[in-house]
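Hey L., structure's done. Input below.
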Amino acid sequence: MPELPDLQVFSHNLDKKLKGKTVKEITIHKAPKLNVTHKELQNILHGQKLSSVYRDGKELFFKFSKGDVLGLHLMLHGKLFLFEGKSNNKYPIIELLFTDDTGLALTDFQGIAAPTLNPEAKDAPDALSDDAGLDYLKGILGKKKTNIKAVLLDQKIIRGIGNAYADEILWDARISPFSVSNKIPADKVKDLIKSIHEVLKNAEKEIIKANPDIIAGEIRDFMLIHNAKKNTAPKARRSSSMKNQGRHITQRSRGCMSRGRTPPSSKVSQKTTSLRSVATWQSSIGMPPTFYRRLPRYRSQ
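Output:
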């Protein structure tokens, strides 16, 4: 599934290529979740000029000259294609044809990618917005007994982060994904905020470097965790992060961590991550299970 950095780059490229074009025709092939009829969508957007394309959470928003917005959620396997004249792409969901006979097609072999006209505003802040800062996240985590990864994935709490980047962020912040949210110390929440911004913004730069014109697919070769080519433990970007945990992790704890065991401390559980949980995570990304055992796991004793 495309995540925040992917969609950010897609939006920039689509805005560059399509901004200023006028809608000639919209064709709906398969969109059971569309919130208006096909005829209403055509009537509303026909003749409008595309003002901008931007990302909002995990959706792409196409804003038109009269203020209407067409939202596209790619879901798991949605892909975007530019075309001229006629689209021959398989599994079409929706096609936008402009007056210059160029167009944009959204496809999905599962048929679940979803267009929405004038999507309702979401209460949860975007992961990169100022509203998702330290005060907000501390307040949310303090009320949650679920693991921190589940919180990062919850689009009703913070929007834009998916499975792959949640793991990258937590690795960078030196927090086990199995940590209980309300047990994470305040200084680690600060690290988490910093990692969210650094990991997502760095990913955007890496994607552009690898494919400047990309509007579909995923580039993962630069990732530290979700990278099938890696078979050794990656290094955190901030080498000083261990020093910042001084009052939570003893020298003995660091020794345990270097050997792949969970460090004993008042803030970090003495229990190792369950083999079943680690095996599930390992099989999903093809990485040795000891990686996450090297991260502090904050939880109740």
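The first helix runs from residue 4 to 18. The chain is about 30% helix and 15% strand.

-- N.
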